[in-house]
Amino acid sequence: MAKKSKIEHNQKRAKIAAQKAPKRARLRAIAKDRSLSVEERFTATLKLAEMPRNSCINRVRNRCEVTGRPRAFNRKLKMSRIALRELGSRGLIPGLVKSSW
Fold it and tell me: pTM higher than 0.70 for the full model?
C-alpha cells in the first residue's frame, strides 16, 4: 500500500488539472496561433508560465485504484500488476481466466 500522503497529493493534482484545463488550453492555443502578433503570443506564454505547475495534466501520476502503487500500472483495468494478479487469483475480475498447471 502506498503512503496516504502521496495518494492525496496525486488526487489534489488531478483536481487542480481538471479545474485549470480550459484556461490552459485557451492560452496554449493563443501561444501557438501564428496569425496573432508576437506580443500577444508572448503575453499568453507568460500567463501560461505563471499558472501553477500542478495544473498541468502531465504531473498527474497513474496509480493503482486498489493499492495506490505508482508503477506497473494497467490502464485498462486501472490497477497494478500485483493487484491484478491477486484479484484474478480470487476470481474477482470478470472475464479474466488465470491459468495454472
Answer: yes
